[in-house]
Amino acid sequence: MTDRQAPWTEEQVRALAPDASSLAAARKLAGRWRETGADGNAVWGLCQGSGAKPYQTVVDLAGPAYKCSCPSRKFPCKHALSLLLAWSGGTVPDRDAPADFAAEWLAGRAAKAAAPAKAKASTTPSPATVEQRRARVSAGLTELEVWLTDQIRTGLAQTDRSFAAYEAIAARMVDAQAPGVAATLRRLPAAMMSTEHWPELLLREYARLHLLVLAHRGIDALPEPLRAGVRTHVGYPTNAETVLAEPAVRDRWQVLGMRVSEEERLHTRRTWLRGRESGRWAVLVEHSFGSPNFTGEVPAPGHEMDADVHFYPGAAPLRVQWGTRHGVPEPFTTVPALGGHTIADALDAYAAALGADPWLRAWPAVLAEVVPALDEHGWQLVDAEGTALPLPAGVRPWRLIAVSGGHPVTVAGEWRADGFDPISVLSAGEVSDLETEFPSGSAPSPELAELVSVALLGTARRGVDGLEVAAAVTDAVPRHAGEPAVRLLDTAALQDLYLRGGRLPGTAPKPEAAADDPRPLLPRKAAERLRRMLADKSAFLPEWFAAAAPSDFRLPDVLCVQALTAASDVQLRGPLLRLAGRRGRWLAARNPAWSALLDAFPADPADAVIDGETSVVTQDVWLFGAPGERKDWLAQLRRSDPAAAREALSAAWAKESGPIKAELLALLEHGLNSADEPLLERALDDRRGDVRRTAANLLARLPGSAYGQRMAALVAAWVRVDADGGVEVSVPTEVDAQARRDGITDGTDQARLRWDTPDSTVTTLHQAVSAAPLTAWAPLVGATGSATAEAAMALTLPPRYAKAIVDGWVDAAIAQRETTWARALFANATPTEQAVLRRRELFGLLAAADRIEHVLDLDAHQLTELHAVLPGLDHPWPAPVADHVLRLLSERARTTGRQPHASAGVYTDRALLTAAGVHLPVDLAARVTALADTTDDPAWQQAFYRLAHDLTDRATMLEELR
Predict the structure, then answer these.
(1) Are 703 and 673 in contact (CB under 8 A)?
(2) Which one of 330, 493, 559, 923 is least enclosed by Cβ atoms within 10 Å?
(3) In which band, very low, low, confident or very high, does the pLDDT at 901 lie, cut at 50, 70 and 90?
(4) Bridge-partner residues for 611, per DSSP?
């Protein structure tokens, strides 16, 4: 047995994932592993998939290398990642020897490694092939030069700029074996459509291509590094053998950023590396056709690895291939300041690289201690001295702004012609990818305006002599010699290089920084889970928010953007904004898309003062705060001192306006008592309908209120019960002023929408019944106490008003929290279809024992009723209910196993399975797994495995918050 290797950290495993979807899928397999083991440098296990035979998965940790019997083309696949996550979490036991399937594969790898290396056939082309290709390229570039000069001579405004025109010249370049040039030409039509400054864009690109044609024409006279660069830009192939033959550069390569792009189904992943010891930059480029299935060999951002890389030949070498790896990825927290981290250093490095390779479009840089700031010119990165570097015009780097919060951070990115493109940010020892939103246009360069004007009109109409360009450019271009179109392209190429290489930094003021949030930071694993759940709109979010609330965590800054975006859902808004806290409020104030959320932020806990054991937010928030802060202030005060909250609202009532008036009044629901009645009666006279309705609803809940007595009087006047239980109803079409003040017939179209009748008296009766105290029915039905509800259920209601009366009773029972009526209505009444959800609320008013008893009485043939009432139970479900649901599901699975074509398939019960995954106690995971192991039907077996995984996932979720 070899020495056992310590389990990798979860961060190391995550770094191996080819993409985020693979990692997410791997986490869902946590409960499906069997016969796992670890021995020396290997980990193995069996993972139950959708078929009867489990997948055999092995990981050779020395590579790492992966073997799985699944059909996935990703490496590592989700099963290998899940196995490594299980090993990292300590759930894979050590074994004395690998399983047979693992031992066979490991032995084959060992034998292959011990075998002598076979000589590879040379792929170096013959000199004749090289010369033939060069002749084709030269001929094609000569045609391109003619095409370019024709474009400039005719004028950009007059030439054909259609997709077909560019496709035609691009196809000719493909025929000439110059794919790099063809790719540039094919990108131009779409680029022109994205900016109003398309003439400048075309002139820049035409001048760049013109310079490339000239360089290729004299390629033999160029030094070898520049010669290699010209070949690369033209599109000559560089085979892997040539690159790997270059000297290996060993370093601890830090991954500072990663991006995936897609063009015509070709996915490209670019990874920016920087040597910890050398400070040298490298870019790893990988391609995958059809889907973004990349290898897991590249560490994730924020990790470094001791490895060799081989640079592609070039004048300013940047692209690399991986060579020998000397270790596994490890996280890093600092980036050494080798080569300089200032704005001036970045510009100098770019100028040097551009001098070596004039076709270079961008060069990476690290900027330390910079702050994103917005001024009249757009977003800038500003250092401590006020020196600024612009971001591309119109860019919206909200993740960067969220992480910074107005404080200095370290940013990695690329400097290019239109500004600094931020790729990642390093703050508090963590690297965060920046999902920057890029603009659809770009800013023009005034220094190129005159050249663009000539190109737009054409050199056939306007001369090129005497153009205002930099003196160095004027000296380099011969005057009054040669074709004017060629001279204009020469001048534009040199002027563009001069402007890009000689760019000077600007200045900008630093913004006001966000205040620090003293609350504890959400644990890293919990934050990562919240990110995934928000992206997936997980059904577990309510449970997560409830579990996190007592700890009053704050979000990691990088998650604030996702939280503010998700806060557009009103059900998630409250807990998300509380988690976002000060940083979220600061960020929302700077983005017009989130400015509406400012009114919804709760009061800042930092404004609280401690009074005994109660934290009360200072009154300044009530007087001067935003609507959300004021609501939170009043809610806190109402919980701690109901009388003081009522007095504060009464004092401010005359000055309140807008929707917040009703929202503040609704807060009196907590601790509602008779002392609130004067203010509520006052609110009945308000001009706003929502305020009047809120006041009426609260008054209806007050026993013995004058409002309730008025409603009871209306019911008594309109409803008469005969001795035999018959009911006669007489509702006037017009009610008096007092009834209108109380909200009766308050401008609703409820009768038509709820009961499908134009009869307005139906609505009038329903409003009175729903607002009247239920005790008002005692004299009408001739019963008292608990017998009142039962007697009311036995009444013979007139068909015209029956639904309105029953719905009124339901609404009244829920509003008044009357359990006796709720029990009678739940057992006997049938609300309208529009009120059926209120029946679930009636169920919630029943005693816990009664609710459990009702659920236990339901069998597998009453699933509709079961689905209707389960949401009315406590979370998680009580043990008897959980046992009953699992029994029902087990019976359904056995029925399907005995009768495969019966209507008891798993898809029929997916709603119940989903609810079970959300509400079953998490400690039942092992029981559900055992149920899956004994289930014969494959579909039901998978459903039970998924249910067990959901329970395990929820248990882990709750554990992460402790």
Answers:
(1) no
(2) 923
(3) low
(4) 614
